């Protein structure tokens, strides 16, 4: 299983628009065959920061997600709304 966390920062004034783009990405991502879970969070202390916490069956499923049409569309819509490139981290369970 692959676990991924992406930290996504909106430009000031763009948080509502970015939130909308990210929310629209959830359903098609969750419907992918290799998706075990896909959650979207907003930082309560910093409304410009969003985080996705994802679990994928394997690396091939994670790669297919990144290559999907809905991710490409979200990237195109989000690019002007981002303060910086998303920070994407992969994790493995250790306990």
Describe the structure.
The chain is α+β, with helices and mostly antiparallel strands. The protein has three helices and four strands; from the N terminus they run βαββααβ. It has helices at residues 15-30, 59-66, 69-78, and strands spanning 2-9, 35-42, 49-56, 87-91. The model has no long low-confidence stretch (mean pLDDT 97).
Key features of this structure:
globular, alpha+beta, single chain, 95 residues, 4 strands
In spatial order, strands of the major sheet run 2-3-1-4
Head-to-tail CA distance between termini: 15 Å
Per DSSP E runs of 2 or more residues, the count of β-strands stands at 4
- Work out the radius of gyration: 13 Å
Structural class by helix and strand composition: alpha+beta
Q: Give unreliable regions as ranges.
A: none
Count of DSSP-assigned helices: 3
Name the shape in a single word: globular
Q: What does the average pLDDT come to?
A: 97
List the secondary-structure elements in sequence, H or E: EHEEHHE
Helix content range = 25-40%
Reported for the largest beta sheet, the result is: 4 strands, antiparallel
Beta-strand percent range: 25-35%
Summed up:
By secondary structure, the chain is of the alpha+beta class.
